[in-house]
Amino acid sequence: MAKKLAVEWGACIGRVTGVLVIVAGILLAAALCTAGQQPANPVPSIFEPHSTPADSILRLSNFVLTITVLIFGVVATLLSYATVKFRSKAGDAQHEPAQVYGSTQIELAWTVIPILIVVVLFLATARVIHAIQDAPKPVAAVEVTAIGHQFWWEYRYPALGIVTANELHIPVSDPNHPSPTFLKLLSADTDHSFWVPQLAGKTDLIPNRINETWVDPHRTGLFLGQCAQYCGTQHAKMLLRVSVETPEAFQVWVNAQKQPAIQDEKEAAGKRVFETTACVNCHAVGGTNATGRFGPDLTHLMSRSTIAAGAAENTKENLRLWIQNPDAIKPGSLMPAMQLTDADLDALVRYLETLK
Amino acid sequence: MSSDAMAIQAAESAGRPWVETLHEWITTVDHKRLGILYIVFALVFLVIGGVEATLMRIQLMRPHNDFVSPQVFNRLFTMHGTTMIFFVAMPVLFGFANYLVPLMIGARDMAFPRLNAFSFWLTAFGGILLYFSFVGGSGLYGAGNAPDVGWWAYAPLTARAFSPGNSSDYWTIAVLVSGFGSIGTSINIIATIFSMRCPGMKLSRMPLLAWLNLVMSGMVLIAITPLSAAQIMLLVDRYLGGHFFDTQAGGSAAIWMHFFWIFGHPEVYVLIIPCFAFMSEIIPVFSRKPIFGYPVMVGATVCIGFVSMSVWAHHMFSIGMSSYSNAFFTLTSMVVGVPTGIKIFNWLGTMWGGKLIFKTPMLFCIGFLFQFLIAGLTGIMLAVSPFDWQLSGSYFVVAHFHYVIVGGILFALFAAFYYWFPKMTGRMLNESLGKLHFWLFLIGFHMTFDVMHIPGILGMPRRIYTYEPGRGWDTMNLIVTIGTFIQGIAILVFVANLIYSFFKGPKAGNDPWDAWTLEWSASSPPPEYNFPAIPTVASRRPLWDLKHPEDPDGRYE
Amino acid sequence: MSTITTPIAQAPEAWSLPYRGKVAMACLIIAESAIFTIFVVAYLFYVGKSLTGPTPREVLETPIFYTICLLSSSFTIHFASRFLERGNRAVFLGLWLLTIVLGGLFLFGTGQEWHRLIYEHGLTISTNLFGTTYYSLVGLHATHVTVGLLMLGIVLLFGLAGRVGPEQSARVEVLSMYWHFVDAVWVVVFTVVYVVGR
User: Fold this and answer.
1) Is the predicted pLDDT of residue C2 greater than 50, yes or no?
2) For residue range B124-134, what is the model confidence (pLDDT) as tens digits?
3) Burial level of A111, CB count in 10 A (0-12/13-18/19+)?
4) N or C, which end of chain B has less CB nearby within 10 Å?
5) What is the pLDDT of residues C90-140, one digit of tens each?
6) Is the pLDDT assigned to residue A207 strictly greater than 90?
7) Could A16 and B436 be called an inter-chain contact, meaning their C-beta atoms sit closer than 8 Å?
8) Closest chain A residue to B434 measured between Cα atoms?
9) Which of B226, B229, B510 lies at the smallest CB-CB distance from C4?
10) Which chains sit next to C, with 3 or more Cβ pairs under 8 A?
11) Which helix (H) or strand (E) covers residue C82, if one does?
């Protein structure tokens, strides 16, 4: 009886295992298929670099990957071979196998070979570390100070006198006449990390410490990333958008950003709401008495395509919702619900929409 | 209390009032009972930590999911990490060490039985304190309950300004207290091994399990204490207005990172070395050969112990250290791979030419070898600091260290459970359920953690409660979540097996696996004082000598 | 195979193992050293980084006398345990008491210095980074001295009751190891705080 049960159990386990293996296979295949499709937004994959640091990291990574895959191939083959070849056979259980206690030659071999591999890997790595970290700053470099806040990014261009938030604009860098962007990374509160995988590896923003990183994008376009160091409740929605533009387009953007805010007399009511409520405690609008620095600078709010550090598109509805109830878009963000009447809210949104 | 604790008590209390049994277990100083208490305590927390993981995976099943709020999610991953490291992995390994080390070196108990009990209860109270934060954490501030600072508790998130209320204090004190417990137990293990060995049990004859636990305990002494020191500083900051990690007063956030990882990285080896110990005991028995290269295994372990003390900053490649520091820590981190590789090769050498018997413990060992190999290789990738600038803080890292902790440590632990359960309870675990458990868990594990590497490569950071659609992460995360459920089912099979076999399993006898170390000469379970007469040994495999008097082991040492 | 008996080979050769108390105390000392190392590293890391005064140069006075007290107590406890080993209880008790007095003096010195710093110079643990690191490091050491004094006191009480004889000398030796460690730590703390840190 017990034996029969065991046999049934065995069969049952076999069947369950088979089904599970098939299911897992199907799911994996499905995953690989969807991974192959071109998704609507660019995938911030480290395997599609468009900037020198990311590029040289990828070349090193491919080298390391090749070596590790080779090691895996050799060791896994030996393990599999041993597992299959040396299984005990029925009827052979009486005798113990030859008792082998070790071998100095073999031990030496499998100590020396890994050491050699380590030396090779280390030398390859040290070169890339030096190339990226100790890269000289060319005179044509654009300098940006990025300041991490809970839970948004402040960007200052000290040489250009621009302050903006969340969407970084930088010029494309021609490999023949490089104009890389050097970012000085600071934090206003907790630790953050600046990570746009297609441009460079991550560097942390740590309070009371100055870090640096640089990128030199080789093509224009929008590059995505997000904060990669846990920084508090809304770490997840502290998104990074880097817009790489042609030098001409970048200059146009710079000129527009240098202007003070547009004063549209038609929206004086909304402006009054802005200036008489708590908005001015945290936000600045160039050319007005709003000079707060806890929140993003709103001088050219409408030049940005998203609000709340990329959490929502910059539309009229979203702006209204964000002012009325920030938790609906980004629960835990430090933006308070403004408790405005509907009329004030509409006027305020209309005013914000003039900040082009 | 977990089911098998109740099972143990149920069986014990037949004919006796349960209060008396309970009293006996609470006041016990017997190393075997304390070992079982440690293990049961860890199993309870394993289930709790597993539930937390499952909740997080449900939240991450699809983009913009709203199964839990960001606040709850942050508490979940903080509690999951803290629980799994400090209240599952550490206690369960200490449990096995407590149970096995005296038996394997022919001692009747640990060197300090009362210190042993004290250390266990410190750890237990630490765990209870951590979870009491759900009740008491908000303090007077209404500032949320359980800690939500991540298990590294990076400064300045733990400062009063960012973490009002008491939740961070619960984290700090719970871990501090359990750390003292760990130090106590480690001192005890070392003293036991140095001062309690039976006659003839020279250090060069000790079973590898004892050797590796000796190295592990030594590492605990110098690895856990930096964390304790840093936590004392954090308490000074939070309660006495100190400025150790106060960036407003000139303090440094980076120094906490250093202190934490000076603990944090050796801690990984503190957890994996006892698992190497399980491998080194189980693989030889099921290959029917002695361990290949015993002195090399000991040397490699000691080497890992030392080198792993100098690799901590590879967790911090992205904080902007100088290129020289980055290069140094790249080198040390790669070097620690060499002795680890030697260990894998020696287990391979042990299997080579043997007669492999694929009982459940051996299956888990084979799984361990393959998975630990992969975990080690992804570790080499992460040691390459430029590669790490891309991978650190991403899901690739999460996949990597779960490969170590689940694919390595947990698989080794399951092997140990199947191997020593007969010794601890006197009954065999069911083989069919064991194999079902193994295959289910293997499939679930690979679905979850193989796939989890990919979103990391595609730019998905860790510790985010939700993510944007369309970045190539969606399907991966769904598969990962499904794998989690398969692992959950496998764990249920395991628990069912524990309970079923405790009552109905076939009697084990003293030596069900035809093994060679001293614990198999005691009855199952062993009597209170382990050995009626203190044994004397003349080789590394005393029971081999008994079984093969014509060819004793000692002449090959 | 289930009838394996406990292996008992031929009569064992001479088999002696170290005393477990000493092994455990050595381990504890290693662990404590790691704790102190971290505090020392923090102290050195923050030397000169305080944003406000007072600075160590302005307010610290080198406690030469109390340092001599603590260091000489290492000799007295060493000879105390030697005399106990030889069975000379009276000398043991005398030296033991002297050790406690010297340790107590040291602790008094620390208290006096803290009193001066707090009330004359307004330096508390929350004043600046120097205050935080100084009180933590010196306080951690003073805590260890206090614990040591309590243990020494317990042995003294047992000794006065005539319950400490040569058969306890191994245990007394363990306590003496701890006391030596506390002294050695003071040498480091002294160097760091009063020599390097200024």
Assistant:
1) no
2) 999 999 999 88
3) middle
4) N
5) 999 999 999 999 999 999 999 999 999 999 999 999 999 999 999 999 999
6) yes
7) yes
8) A13
9) B510
10) B
11) helix C64-85
- The rounded distance, in Å, linking the Cα atoms of C172 and C53 is 45
What confidence score (pLDDT) does residue B506 get? 94
pLDDT digits (tens, 9 = 90+) for A10-25: 555 555 555 555 555 5
Enter the tokens of residue B376: 């080690």
Pair B200, C25: CB distance under 8 Å: no
Rounded to whole angstroms, the Cα distance separating B154 from B253 reads: 7
* Chain B interface mutation, best of C19, C20, C127, highest count of B Cβ atoms under 10 Å: C20
> In the prediction, which pLDDT does C10 show?
57
Long-range contacts of B523-527 (CB under 8 A, 24+ apart): B523/B426, B524/B422, B524/B423, B524/B424, B524/B425, B524/B426, B525/B32, B525/B423, B525/B424, B525/B425, B525/B426, B526/B32, B526/B103, B526/B423
| Inter-chain CB proximity B380 and A6 less than 8 Å | no
Residues facing A192 on adjacent strands: A205
Q: What is the 3-state secondary structure (H, E, C) of chain A?
A: CHHHHHHHHHHHHHHHHHHHHHHHHHHHHHHHHHHHCCCCCCCCCCCCCCEHHHHHHHHHHHHHHHHHHHHHHHHHHHHHHHHHHCECCCCCCCCCCCCCCCCHHHHHHHHHHHHHHHHHHHHHHHHHHHHHHCCCCCCCCEEEEEEEECCEEEEEECCCCEEEECEEEEECCECCECCCEEEEEEECCCCEEECCCCCCCCEEECCCCCEEEEECECCCEEEEEECCCCCCCCHHHCEEEEEEECHHHHHHHHHHHHCCCCCCHHHHHHHHHHHHCCHHHHCECCCCCCECCCCCCCCCHHHCCEECCCCEECCHHHHHHHHHCHHHCCCCCCCCCCCCCHHHHHHHHHHHCCCC
Mean pLDDT for B40-66 is 95
Reading across the β-sheet that carries A239-245, which strands appear in turn? Answer: A167-171, A239-245, A221-226
Q: Do C8 and B252 touch (CB under 8 A)?
A: no
* Chain A / chain B CB contacts < 8 angstroms: 316
**Preferred mutation among A50, A85, A87, A110 to probe B, highest tally of B CBs within 10 A:** A110
Q: How far is CA C75 from the centre of its chain?
A: 13
Helix, strand, coil distribution of chain B in percent, nearest 5:
70, 0, 30
| Burial class of residue B65 (count of CB atoms within 10 Å of its CB; 0-12, 13-18, 19+) | middle
Enter the tokens of residue B23: 């009293």
* Reported pTM: 0.92
Contact yes or no for B211/B274 (Cβ under 8 A) = no
Residue B166 confidence (pLDDT):
86
Segment (H or E) for B389: helix B385-391
ipTM: 0.93
Q: What is the rounded distance in angstroms from the CA atom of residue B245 to the CA atom of residue A302?
A: 39
Both structure tokens of A200: 């460079």
Q: Which residue of A has its CA nearest to B471?
A: A43
C24 neighbors C173 (Cβ within 8 angstroms): no
Q: Which amino acid is at A294?
A: F
Name the architecture of domain C20-196.
Up-down Bundle (1.20)
Alpha carbons B547 and B556: distance in angstroms, whole number: 16
**Which domains does chain B carry?**
2-555 (1.20.210.10)
- Taking the domains of chain C in order of start, what are their residue ranges? 20-196
Q: Are strands A162-165 and A152-157 parallel, antiparallel or unpaired?
A: antiparallel
Q: Provide the 8-state DSSP code for B182.
A: H
- Which residues 225-254 of B are in CB contact (within 8 Å) with C? 225-226, 228-230, 232-233, 236-237, 240-244, 249-252
Provide the CB-side half-sphere exposure for B334 (13 A, CA). 25
